[in-house]
Amino acid sequence: MSSDIRFTDFKSDKQPTWCPGCGDFGTMNGMMKALAETGNDPDNTFVVAGIGCSGKIGTYMHSYALHGVHGRALPVGVGVKLANPDLEVMVAGGDGDGYSIGAGHFIHAVRRNVDMSYVVMDNRIYGLTKGQASPTSREDFETSTSPEGTHMSPVNPLALALASGASFVAQTFSSDSQRHTEVVKEAIEHDGFGLVNVYSPCVTFNDVDTYDYFRDAIVDVSETDHDPNNKDAARDLITDGSTEYVGVLYRDEDSVPYEQREGIEGNMAEIPDGAPEGAMDLVREFY
Ligand SMILES: Cc1ncc(C[n+]2csc(CCOP(=O)(O)OP(=O)(O)O)c2C)c(N)n1
Ligand code: SF4
Ligand SMILES: [Mg+2]
Fold first, then answer.
1. Ligand 1 atom at minimum distance from 24 CA
2. Mean pLDDT of 177-206
3. Domain-embedded: residue 210
4. Among the listed residues 6, 31, 120, the one whose alpha carbon sits nearest the alpha carbon of residue 73
5. CA distance 90 to 47
6. Is the pLDDT of residue 213 over 60?
7. Average pLDDT over residues 199-216
8. What is the pLDDT at residue 274?
9. Which atom belonging to ligand 2 lies closest to the Cα atom of 121?
10. Ligand 1: nearest atom to the Cα of 200
11. What is the pLDDT of residue 258?
12. In principle, which of 18, 53, 175, 220 could form an S-S bond with 22, CB 3.0–4.6 Å?
């Protein structure tokens, strides 16, 4: 790791095709700043991305990366981290990717508590496929797949995480660059699985959950007397449907990551001393 890394070192040479004004720009900038400011560099960072507008992020960032299958980014991220715990693993995706098709993986990644971060660009809609309702869409949100509203209450991802045994639960607003960056840094530095759900507005298909809406609605818990180490207090805030809280809502100070509990260490791809030449040819093929 090098200390003179700047966040721009995490930018790839690919020009984002996101719509002008998309919240994902701010989300990604904060992720890159947080990685640089926590002493990481592109050579020790692995970004696993889901499928969606949000999932394109692995192409726009300069690091090791895998743009995989819809809803399956988390198990890949877990596998990467367990194969090489020396890597900084960040998984990123959308609300559909993480809380709909990937909901089962989300629960189990949370409870496994591997030391990695998960940044979800929650625009409360399916952006890439042009505006269908997502699991976090409001009950009365009218889309092509819900012409009279979804008739379902939205998934509360923070509550789902807490109920699944999460050790770090946070929420940010992509437009508030400084706070978003600070919170992602805390997720990276947390010993265990760090969830950051980011209000990351879709300016093309969601005219309800807009920048103006979030700017008026959000309350930063760091400006209240909330104690993130108090799980009961966190549960109360997270299940209070009337307020859009941002900041670190819950942190388990005693969290021990899975790999530490299981004694998993070392890079599996390293060729051990004395290994038979022929047997390691296969490993070399994947270098
Ligand atoms: C297995 C599978 N099912 C469905 C799709 C179609 N699909 C692509 S992205 C997407 C939803 C994306 O929504 P979200 O995860 O919220 O990302 P966003 O585009 O909003 O960032 C869907 C349903 C797919 N690519 N693969
Ligand atoms: S469709 Fe929405 S989520 Fe996708 S790039 Fe455009 S603004 Fe962003
Ligand atoms: Mg979405």
1. 21
2. 98
3. yes
4. 120
5. 5
6. yes
7. 98
8. 77
9. 3
10. 21
11. 97
12. 18
Asked whether residue 148 is domain-assigned, the answer is yes
Q: Determine the structural domain holding residue 144 and report its residue range.
A: 7-285
Q: Ligand 1 within 6 A of 54 CB? A: yes
Token pair in block for residue 247: 């900041």
Residue of the CA atom closest to atom 2 of ligand 2? 202
Average pLDDT over residues 71-82: 97
Average pLDDT of the residues in 225-245: 96
137-172 tens-digit pLDDT: 999 999 999 999 999 999 999 999 999 999 999 999
Q: Is the CB of 60 under 6 A from ligand 2?
A: no
Pocket probe mutation, ligand 1, options 59, 70, 106, 144, max atoms within 8 Å of Cβ? 70
Looking at the 3D structure of the chain, how many domains does it have? 1
The answer on pLDDT for 3 being more than 70 is no
- CATH number for the domain harbouring residue 195: 3.40.50.970
Does residue 1 fall inside a structural domain?
no
pLDDT tens digits for range 45-64: 999 999 999 999 999 999 99
For ligand 1, atom 9, the nearest C-alpha belongs to 52
8 A C-beta contact, residue 167 and residue 179: no
Long-range contacts from 175-180, C-beta under 8 angstroms, 24+ separation: 175/23, 175/26, 175/201, 175/211, 175/214, 175/215, 176/218, 176/246, 177/26, 177/29, 177/30, 177/33, 179/220, 179/222, 179/246, 179/247, 180/26, 180/27, 180/30
Mean pLDDT of 5-17: 96
* Predicted local distance difference test score (pLDDT) of residue 141: 97
Q: Which amino acid is at 51?
A: I
Label the pairing between strands 64-67 and 45-49: parallel
Ramachandran angles phi, psi of 44, nearest 5°: -115, 10
On whether residue 2 sits in a domain, the answer given is no
User: Is the C-beta atom of 135 inside 6 A of ligand 1?
Assistant: no
- Cβ atoms of 77 and 60 within 8 Å: the answer is no
